[in-house]
Amino acid sequence: MEKEKLRYNREKLLEMRRNLITKLNERYNEAMGLGGDGTQDSADEAYNLYNKNLMLGRVETDALKLRLIEQALQRIDAATYGVCIECEEDIEEKRLEYVPFARYCTDCKSELEKKGLIKM
Which of 42, 46, 84, 93 is the most buried (most CB within 10 A)? Predict the structure, then answer.
């Protein structure tokens, strides 16, 4: 991959990481604050518990995305960025533009999803 494109993707990943960390902190704090505003009846408690679990699920998804971003930054440092970790072929530039933390080329990702081996 050419240096300019690599530099662009690194900056994009760093920006994504900064935004994601901010969002993770906000969602986590919001989830932890639910129901802490006084006495609640059982309906309010159930509603708050449901929302808390929903938010924590989003935090978990964002944490996974953050790990993928970190791994992509490591691949840039190791000069393996843009190479599919399954078949070792180049990942399509359009795919990296859309998903800069992509680990798999389109074909390998589709095949692994069909087998139920990956979700993201």
Answer: 84
